[in-house]
Design goal:
Radius of gyration: 16 Å
Number of helices: 7
Organism: Faecalibacterium hominis
Strand order of the largest sheet: 2-7-1-8-9
Subcellular location: Cytoplasm
CATH superfamily: P-loop containing nucleotide triphosphate hydrolases
Helix content: 40-55%
CATH topology: Rossmann fold
Shape: globular
Distance between the termini: 25 Å
CATH architecture: 3-Layer(aba) Sandwich
Structural class: alpha/beta
Enzyme class: transferase
Oligomer: single chain
Main location: cytoplasm
Catalytic activity: GMP + ATP = GDP + ADP
Order of helices and strands: EHEEEHEEHEHEHHEH
Number of strands: 9
Amino acid sequence: MENEKYLFVVSGAAGTGKDSVVSALRKAHPEIEKTVSATTRSPRPGEQEGVDYYYRTKEQFQQLIDQDEVVEHNFFNGNYYGTLKEEVNRRLNAGKLVVMVIDVHGAANIRRMYPGATTIFLLPPSTQELERRLRGRGTETEESIRERLEIARNELAQQDKFTLKLVNDEVDACAARLYDVICQRAGLTR
């Protein structure tokens, strides 16, 4: 696809601040669009179809996978989560700058499907800071934190497969560096 240079994938281990960095980026640059994921989980109070997620049944989601209409997906806590191909292509065909926040495995699919996309791996300042962030959430058991840290170590080992790496030492500064990358890779003037 001709507009693949406008597709940016932000990935990294849990606790690196992917969502926080992209939220800060989009707050400063609302012209950059973020893809909306699809899920099989039920909507939470206040969530809206097409804004927070596209809500599908497990059967519908499986059919989308079978028809190659999902560019990346995973199964977590009994539900599917993923990005619909149409969600990406519609934005790229309109010439929009598109950011996807996805896990390391999903990023591998994007590299295969959209070889012109830029993949960015967010790193924590240190593994100690990553652990501090995960513990600071206060939402997980000790066992869950240990599991997430082990997964994070495996994900961190994938960083050299990405186009480039950014250290998230401070959210706004990292978002500004991400914007610089987007401008450079998409051929835009600041």
